[in-house]
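Long-time lurker. I teach an intro course on protein structure, and each term I like to show students one example going from raw sequence to a predicted 3D structure in token notation. This year I'd like something fresh instead of my usual example. Would anyone be willing to generate the tokens for the chain below so I can use it in lecture? Attribution to the forum is fine with me.
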Amino acid sequence: MSRPRAIIHIDRVVLSGVDPQQAKAIVEGLRAELASLFSSAAFRGKLRNARSADVIRVGSVPLGAGRAGAKRFGVAVARAAGKGMRA
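-- Reply from a regular --
Happy to contribute to a lecture. Here you go:
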């Protein structure tokens, strides 16, 4: 029996009015946290019964200053998206 797999397709990340260096850090944080979430056994268990979602609303997430704040923003968005996935 083959292992189940998840396919994540993010069409685009729109970051209007964000400095290009901050935008890069946001995407890095987002990517790293999503990889971490999806490697978690507990999260994979949650996904077994998950349904497809066109949009996951994450609410308000503050953007901190500089590259570190931007990376934290990406991590926070990924975590909020993970919580938004419902079975």
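Some talking points for your students: The chain has one domain: 20-84. The mean pLDDT is 79.
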